[in-house]
Amino acid sequence: AAYVWRHRGQPGAWPLSLLLSGVAIWSFSAALEMASVTPQAKMFWTGVLYIGIVTAPAALLLFALDYSGRRVPRMLGILLLIEPLLVLGMVWTEGLQAYYWSEIRFIDYAGFQVSTVSPGLGFWLHAAYSYGLCLLGSLLLVLQYLHSPPAYRRQIGAMFAAMMLPWASNALYIFGLNPFLHLDLTPLPSASPG
Fold first, then answer.
1. Over the stretch 104-129, which tens digit does the pLDDT of each residue have?
2. Which of 11, 37, 77, 113 is 20 to 30 Å apart from 158, CA to CA?
């Protein structure tokens, strides 16, 4: 993220730096949440990792817009802040968490204390919103791929493939199809180099 930020004058660089920062927060906090032993510590790190969770979809859309040469209106950036702030408000406020997660439990699993949640309406609304932004960003990259010279198609194809792995991991997790019960793999491929 810091390297990309130094080249923020290049197309797509500043939103890519934001996206990478969000993914770094998400991955780092997920590791600390897994390593935490008390429910209070787990909930603290869950709240921190949500900064990355709510940042990534909007940053991905902004990256696709900027990289494909489309002007990013300032008002769009402001509008994209509303949903993340509402989600963070629900996640960080004990009285509002029930709108996001209908139940939060802490169980022993394979010798570790893990948190399990039952999604509430806020969770599903956030998931739909996030997937919509990711889909729109993906479509913009596909269009850019189709209209780019062959020399740039490999680069765009690699970016698209890199986006699909965490997106697929997240879909497996939120729809209960994850082969690793109680483990969200989304931040793991997102943080891997490459």
1. 888 887 777 778 888 999 999 999 99
2. 77
